[in-house]
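Hello,

Our lab assistant flagged a job as stuck in the queue for most of the afternoon. It eventually completed. Since we weren't sure the result was trustworthy after the delay, we are filing this so someone can double-check. Below is the sequence as submitted and the structure that was eventually returned. Let us know if re-running is recommended.
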Amino acid sequence: RLVKVAVTMNRGPLLELFVLLIVELLGVQSFQMHTTFTKLGSGTFRSRANIVRRQSSSTITMKDPSRIAVIGSGAVGLYYGGRLLEAGHDVTFLARRDLDRLNKDGLRIKSVDGDVNFAQVKAVGDVTEIGEVDWVLLSVKSYALEACKELVKGCMGPQTRILAVINGFGIESCLASDFPHDKIFGGMAFTCINRESDGEVNHLKYGTITFGHYKDDKDELAKVVDLFEGSKVKVTTSDCLLYSRWEKLCWNIPFNGIAVAMGGITTDIIVTDPDLRLLARKVMEDVVKVGNEDLETRNISPEYRLNDETIAAMFSRTDNMGPYRPSTMIDLVEGKQMEVEYMFGNPLERARALQVSCGYMESVISMIKGIQRIRKL
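-- returned structure --
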């Protein structure tokens, strides 16, 4: 049975509450929400949300499963790749460190959206064992982006599409230097996912992933929606990828940044300490200022602008996260290489190119770069 619900109202927490209430009342087990915001006036938006009720992914029969290569089998790659596998797709994980574990023990996902265990998965250590696929789910750390291009090429065919679920700014333009522009998508996952020491993927909270197309092609975006049809992943699509990248940076730069600059603290400390909370807001306001200038300079429609509601939404989500450890903070405390260039360096370079003053953002990023040099991370 197909149930569609159309909602037209001001953007904000009330819309989210209304949508979630409908989902609960209908007993929807998974849904996809496609949201387009049109500015009506100062601080006012019109939002249209479509909810599709469908069979659980455990019982759905797929007409045409896709062949998917997951390159970057960390927490994010394993989780979203696992959900696509659960939905019936042919998924192969390219792994290095966890190759033996995946082949021996399979994949275990503990999730707020339902646990799933695979006694066996297809995991390989060489891209030549995968060959041409329909989709590449690229979820490597951003510092490995350039180096992994050869791995992606090993999976490419004339119709292969790339989903880059990677944090940072300039991800898609980096890929565009080697791959067809119409085959590149960016994915912004707002979720709390960690990988435990025993290899289990722990999905703690949230999980929605927003996809945008490098050329903002709506027809291409529809193909991503079809890919996740039947999965337990909540998908939203963005008609402006650049806007969504800056929107995600509104969270990553202050919360990843302050967590690292303070030596490795969790997000609950940032939002409950009055001085750190104020600092996070000031940094976020800088990101909003730089992002909006970038959008305006590139002649993006005025309907795509960050504002106070963006900031309020980021804090509302973080207030409910609990003691979450952001990815860059985990790398710091575990002595691993940190994602600095794409998540922090590139946005700051863009701010300087635009001649936008962003003192709070620049100070936090300077501290992160200093920590990276001193600790050789």
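-- support follow-up --
The delay was a queue issue, not a problem with the job. The result is valid. The first strand starts at residue 6 and ends at 10. The chain has a mean pLDDT of 87.
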